[in-house]
Amino acid sequence: MNSLEELLYPSPHFSEMKKQSKVKHPYSHGLYLSINHNCKREEEVSKQYHRIYRIVFSTFTGKVLVPQDIRTEHKIPTTKKAKELLRRNIPLMTSALHKFPYEKKYSNGDVVQSHYFHSHHYLYRMENLMPKGVREMNKKVEELRLHIQEYISTTSSKHLLVKVQAVGQGENINDRVTDETLYDYLKSASGNQNNLMTYFKNKSVLPVETDLSYTYTD
What we know:
Layout: H1 3-8, H2 14-20, E1 31-37, H3 42-46, H4 49-61, E2 70-73, H5 79-87, E3 92-105, E4 111-124, H6 134-151, E5 162-166, H7 182-187, H8 196-202, E6 213-217
Antiparallel strand pairs: 1-4, 1-5, 2-6, 3-4, 3-6
């Protein structure tokens, strides 16, 4: 049991928590998080993945995750690693970085071309961290938006440019992920499926070999 497991599941209750994780939950298919960043270089955004993972964890648990335990890999996890994380109830965050150009026109006729970045994150095995009650859960989701806005620089300080939603419903209806299908789902970015993984990859600014990043705790 690592530090995250100790924080989430004190040893006398660990087995019981694993049983509870099987209860149907609105976020049982995952959580989708999108952030509009105020950064000009892609490495400025990607190096914040660790912080984003920590903010998600601390928002829903009220506890601090040790930074040294967090890992980010720019490749799809092996079947063995994916199964190991599921067995230990460790949230796995899949991330992609999208670049959007824009033009800003001034009254004197000058036109300046620039760009901004969106980072998109898919977190699986989140239900153990989140409240079971709808009201409490929605309150925590709103807290997460506010915490991201506070600790991650976005393109506007007036408007909350952070999106949080449950996966497997609404516009993400095709993303009905289970423990048995998680690995194939993560690999589906290279296919033609209409899901988040395909969206992540098709607009990614990084090379094919490193277009998706996987963040977890070890």
